Amino acid sequence: MAKTILIVDDSSSLRSVVGTALKGAGYDVIEAEDGKDALTKLNGQKIHLIISDVNMPNMNGIEFLKASKQIPAYKFTPVIMLTTESAEDKKMQGQAGGAKAWMVKPFQPPQLLNAVSKLVLP
Amino acid sequence: MQNHYVQNINTNDVPEFREELLQQLCASLLPVWADQIHAAKTLTSSSIDELSAKFSGLSQSVRAVTSQEQSQSNQQLLELLNLSQDQLATVIVLLKNSIEEKQTLLQAVSTLSGYTKNLLDMADVVTRIAKETGMVAVNAAIEAARVGDRGRGFAVVAEAVRRLSTDAGTTGSHISETVKNVSEAIKNVSQVSKEFEAKDAKTLVEAEQIVNSVVDKFGHTANAVIQASQQMMNESQHVANEIDQVLYALQFQDRVSQMLSHVQQDIEKLNHRVDDVNGLGSVDEWLRELKSTYTMREQTQIHEKRAKPASRFGKKTFGASTPPPASTSNDADDITFF
């Protein structure tokens, strides 16, 4: 049974890149184009991991992170923030919001898959 | 009208006109530049999105070709080859067994041939005994005739014995003749069987050669197919990796888009403030505000390299100047686990 990962990014190309890497490793992928769209995808379906951008329209990644932790079914779903942001204060916001990892773009697929495999429970 | 106005101002001689010209230039040009940047960003984004989607589809298609199922097909072909080899070898073994059984039958027939010689000897013995018994009967008849009437009964017995010996001799001859016929038939069977044995041996050798040849050809073809398939899989894997590298390289669009967005927003902000001298803010304030919006190291690095603080102009500066905050750039690892 493949694990399902939710990708949240306003860049369609980034979603394609991340999705291709994850699908190639055997994961199922759900895409959302911003935090608000992502919340509609958290509709009770089993999601094993969330990979979210930070700077997005409508609802940014930090706001989405905090909102997702308010939903009991996804309270313990691990979240990786994948962003161009590398500032320490932003990372601290992610950590405070409950993110498990902070990854700076551009990423290399093996690096991302390594982080995913560490956080997705068997 | 504006252009006419701009062309007739000597900006070098009249500072206040120069300031007004700058204000008008900003009001005219900044929205254009902002929109041009926005258009360029949108065009780049849509094109890269389209490219990414196509490369992503290509990557998945190519990976489907190199899937485990393909590898399993090769494995199945190898297993089929081994199975065919085993089964054809079994056919050869069955042929060998059949020939060995025929040889056993031939040996049994040969043994029978040996028995017919014994039977012939026994038939000769019967014939010889019949002859001797006949001689005894003739002598008995002679002796019976010599004693006259007293030997008449004995003569009758002697005659009966003679007839019996004659019959026995005839039967012995028949047995001998029949045994000879049987022996001849057995010899014929034996001869035919030997011919069959030779043909069987030849057939077996030929069958073995044909089977080995077919298996070898099948094996060579299967190996060639598997090698070609493996080579295709390797090539496909290489192509898939190359496509993935292209996809990953396309991440530049996200970064470029963010940089252009910041520049566009900053131009629009400048355009809004340019009409209000009090709201324009100092150079240092602008630089700080710009820096606070950066999300990437490159932006911060460019800013630190190119931005000129107000003090470097050596002229009057507008608005209060406060020390800049600590740099937000970060050289930490690209991934941090919490």
List the helices and strands and how they pair.
The complex is a heterodimer of chains A (122) and B (338).
Chain A: E1 4-8, H1 12-24, E2 28-32, H2 35-41, E3 49-52, H3 61-69, E4 79-83, H4 88-97, E5 101-104, H5 109-119
Parallel strand pairs in A: 1-2, 1-3, 3-4, 4-5
Chain B: H1 2-7, H2 15-65, H3 68-146, H4 152-249, H5 252-273, H6 277-280, H7 283-293, H8 297-306, E1 335-337
Helix pairs in contact in B: 2-4, 2-5, 3-4
Key terms for this structure?
heterodimer; A: 122 residues; alpha/beta; Rossmann fold; 41% helix; B: 338 residues; mainly alpha; 1% strand
Description:
The complex is a heterodimer of chains A (122) and B (338). With 122 residues, chain A is an alpha/beta fold. Chain A has a single domain (4-119), classed as Response regulator (Rossmann fold, 3-Layer(aba) Sandwich). Helices cover 41% and strands 19% of the residues of chain A. Chain A is built from five helices and five strands. Chain A has a five-stranded parallel β-sheet, sandwiched between helices. Chain A starts with a strand and ends with a helix. Chain B is an all-alpha fold. Chain B is 83% helix and 1% strand. Classes of the chains: A alpha/beta (122), B mainly alpha (338). Strand 5 (101-104) of chain A pairs antiparallel with strand 1 (335-337) of chain B, so a sheet runs across the interface.
